[in-house]
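Table S2 (text version). Query chain:
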Amino acid sequence: MNVDKLNLMPSPALQQMGKRPMGQRIKEWVTDFRRQWEIQSMVIPGIIFMIVFCYIPIYGLTIAFKNYTVIDTLSSAPWVGLDNFRIILSDKYFWDSVINTLGISFLKLAIGFVIPIILGIMIYELNRGRFKKIVQTISYLPHFLSWIVLGGMLITWFSTSGLFNQLLLELGLISKPSNILLDAGKYWWIATLSDIWKEAGWGTILYLAVMSKIDPTYYEAARIDGASRIRQIWNITLPNMKMIISLNLILTVSGLLGSNLDQTLVLMNSQNREKAEVINSYVYRMGMTQGDFSYATAVGLGVSIVSVILLVAANKITSKLNDNQSVL
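Corresponding structure-token output:
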């Protein structure tokens, strides 16, 4: 008999398991649950939470295919099929929000994805323990401040008499102060850099955790061979961080269409709206402000579908780069 066929055949234990009647398997499951009921019961609240807040609301996606108003129920609203999606394709303001979302997201991907890696390596390379902790604390701190607080700080700093205008005047870079947040052309950079300022330090946590697990004998051997600090980082640190970098890249790419709503609502104003309006704020405005729930749900559903496609594509690409090893 062919060896390959033998390898594909299930074991006798598995064959016997498959032959057992359903009632016996359920009885064994109940017995196992009773034996471990303390541990098993800890999972029940999480399961209930997911059912109530994650699975039951999926039925609400039918609103995207209906003409729903506040006086309707999900079942009584008239069915309109794909009409809401056809409106989306011809909506100029929606496509403007898509362009803004992609522009800001690609800037955050190009700059904000690399900076936590560099910052994490720099913190890891610090030798003095107390100074290292101080740097980590300072870099983490903005993450714990809400966008309401940070947005208020930025609005004050970017005002005509704010810190940035005074600094630029002292350096002779401008001759007349102006409110920077009212300049729509600068908003993409403001959104990108302020998001990096808030999240870069927090983004180093996973990288520092991975680097702490690297065998120090690798660095000792490299130093004996005369490798410089840069060469050690390039040949030892970065290769050992490959999987976590790939995972963060996949998650970042899948979220390209999900710009920060809190940041946008705080920093957006009537003067910079044409460059500040992103998909999330557009959905919020159409649904909560204008009451067009069906249209807003259709936009959200379309964005979710595209995000799943981006997630799968990014996973496929990174697995090819990692010798067909998927991180998901």
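Notes on Table S2: Residues 29 and 35 are 10 Å apart (CA to CA). Confidence is low (pLDDT under 50) at residues 1-11.
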